[in-house]
Amino acid sequence: MYHQVEIVKESVQTEPNVFDDMVINVGPQHPATHGVLHLVITLNGETIKKVEPHLGYIHRSIEKMCESLSFRQFIYVTSKMDYLSSHINNHGCCLCVEQGLQIEVPQKAQVIRVLMDELTRIASHVLWWGAMAMDVGALTPFFLSFREREMINDIMEETCGTRLTMNYMVPGGVMTDVHPNFVNRVNEFIRHFKSKIDEYDELVTNNVIFQNRTKGVGVLSKEDAVSFGVTGPAARGSGVSCDIRKLYPYEVYQQLNFEEVIETAGDSFARYVVRLKELRQSMHIIEQLIDNIPEGDFQAKTKAVLKLPKGEFYSRVETARGEFGVYIVSEGGTTPYRIKFRSPGFSNLSVLDHIARGGKIGDLVAMMGTLDLVIPDIDR
Amino acid sequence: MTKEEQKLKLQEQFPSAIFDDAGQWLAINVAVADWLTTAQTLRAAGFDYLFCLTCVDYKTHLTMVYHMESTSERTPLVVKVQLDRNKPEIETVSHIWRTAEFHEREVYELFGVNFLNHPDLRLLILPDGWEGRNPLRKDFEDPVNMIKL
User: How far apart are CA A49 and CA A36, in angstroms?
Assistant: First the structure.
């Protein structure tokens, strides 16, 4: 028989009740939530008894919107969900449409897609690193992280035309060929970033104040991580092997040499370490591909109007935050009948109440920070 | 494990379920009365990761769709439960897979499905005081914000 989790809805008593419960609101506009997330926190003294997320401040009902958009158009809306992983969101949607239409993506497009995914992952993790350090009181890393992120944004701007919501991937490949400067600039970035990432470790990872703020804080067990559907670095910090790039390899990931980073402590520091190690793995992936972009087409030939056959299609990709799933129900028309986006942030947020109970209010930002919540991804 | 092996194995455990292996993953259709026991049996059989929980409005009925897999074997399985559109009710599985708690709240407000024995069935995304209309149902039309092409 499996271990059935007992749901404790009311008070976790950790201290004698000398104070009355106090309810405080964090957000919807609060710098530590990095977006419009509203948390209602019940406190006993400084101890957290309950965290109740209230969502929907930025809900745009993207799923409903997609029902009236064509199979080419709906992909662009998904850039606005997890705006820090917009390439990877687009990628997941393209994979789903390609699966339905059985389109073979040219090798060159696959390589470009993976390169873009990994650059996005670096940009996202770097921004998270700065914001996370800022949350726990260190301001300098925030400026350093923007220095590196700026270089990636410039690369994106040159090739895709925009810096944040790129909309570069289309069913069958990518929209245009990469810019002639792309290879040089990515190489330059990798050279630059290699020297800087050690600085990250010196400045924050090995910092004793930071370690004291995050070690043993917000401990998530392996069983709970799976049960709550936590994915991405947050789950890998608890020892769950959940990297979709390894488990269900898509595009050229199968041929690449990289490691799935797994830590077992399950606390905020472990989640932090996973992301920093992933930065190095992403760099390693880019290095393997950047000088070997194959010749050929960047896009497969597709019809102007796409019609998915009747049926159900599901694709899974690994964003910077975890598993992103696209579930399309098609009735054979030009628009999806129903789309469900399984966003990593939504499931990752649901565990916050569980890990925060019994902790201190001052540690809440350290727990929230390492879950890496992006609010538009949660609300959709 | 391949789809065929999975089908043979599950057919022994769920003789009354209807199997469909035309899609990407094996899908089983379960009656709404059997859902809770099916979920418990599946969880005991190792399906510990419920990665997607959603609902589809087919105009004549609603269908709950559960995507799950085992973290040790990684063979996804789709379970579908058909619901009456006028009075959709189904047992919650939030005590079996904790992730279902939030996902069921989302389905509750967007589709109007009532989850029996759910520990905390309140509005999650929609503003307080929202009543009656369920935005993701096919007959819902927002006169102000609807995008139509």
Answer: 22
